[in-house]
Amino acid sequence: MQQNRKAASRFNLSDMVTGFIGGVLWSTVAWLAYFFHFTDLSVADFVLRSWIWMPWADSWAGELISILLVGILSVLVAFLYYVFLKKSQGIIPSILFGVALWVLVQIVLAPIIYGVDSAFHADRNANITTMCLYLLYAVFIGYSISYEYQQSQAYQDKT
């Protein structure tokens, strides 16, 4: 029984899948927002074009590779959420996590990424769009991980 309790408290495959799917899903939505001109920055601007200056990075292949890379990076984000906030209940911790991610990427990291303007230089529509995307992404990841953790704890308490 003690081993089952330890197994329930580990970062597992479903948490990794949640992180990957969340990253791919919401970066695809971010690319659609870029395609429909809600923002000036695509996913590839953040992930790929700032380090790779090859012609293919400006094509659909660059966008697709960037979306997959965000999915892989999102596993790390899911791990961080699992470590620090897995026991949280409700949607508020996830929203605050999304705000923290937006501040980290759009204000702290954007000035050091080549070709990406920080939130202070972006227009209002771009900031609102990216903030909404970060909030939805964080709620997807956070709520999924917290719900699964609480379900596994409830199951362990029954047995």
Q: How much helical structure, as a percent, in the residues?
A: over 70%
Largest sheet features:
none
Instruction: Report how far the terminal alpha carbons are from each other.
Output: 8 Å
Low-confidence stretches: none
Radius of gyration (CA) equals 17 Å
Overall shape? elongated
> In total, how many beta strands?
0
Average of per-residue pLDDT values: 88
State which percent range the strand residues make up. under 5%
Structural class computed from helices and strand pairing: mainly alpha
Total helical elements: 6
What is the H/E order?
HHHHHH
Oligomer: single chain
3D structure, described in words:
By secondary structure, the chain is mainly α. Helix 2 runs antiparallel to helix 6 (124-158), helix 4 (60-85) crosses helix 6 and helix 5 (92-109) crosses helix 6. The protein is built from six helices and no strands. The chain is elongated. The N and C termini lie close together (8 Å).
Provide a short characterization of the protein structure:
With 159 residues, the chain is an all-alpha fold. Helices cover 72% and strands 0% of the residues.
SSE blueprint and pairings:
Blueprint (H helix, E strand, L loop, with lengths): L1 H7 L4 H23 L7 H5 L12 H26 L6 H18 L14 H35 L1
Helix pairs in contact: 2-4, 2-6, 4-6, 5-6
